[in-house]
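Entry 14. Structure prediction run on the chain below.
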Amino acid sequence: MIEWQEKKFIDLSVEELYEVFKIRAEIFVLEQEIAYVDPDNKDQKAIHVIGRKENKIVAYARAFPPGEYYEGFSGFGRVAVDKKERGKGLGIALVEKTIEVCLKNFTNHDIKISAQEHLEKFYLERGFVCKNERYLEDGIPHCAMYYKEKEIKEKE
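Output returned:
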């Protein structure tokens, strides 16, 4: 069973912040071999979406208010699921929870993300659209993707 939390930066304990940096480093630096400085001075502006299992962070994302990451859009990134927990639907739950956090906290704004191209189908299935804005980010092909709550509700 996953316990979900959403916290502002100031509400993260030192131990939680350490765990957040650890899971992000394990996935983005070690697994994906991205050489970058993870502490980017954006964590302080984000709402941190945390999924815990047996008191350990196993899923994580950070959500941003409009204008803090993308001009005119709310957004999220650093979407991470512990390698041992993949294939169990946790990534889907994490993205759905993060969308919920964005819609609840940043009303009347569409969501924009920078998705790695190999995850495009995954995000399309979650209601995002890609407008063919493709680019390299940290040497990895990405696509700008958009989630429009009004369009999603009209289709249901």
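The first strand starts at residue 3 and ends at 8.
Filed with the rest of this week's runs.
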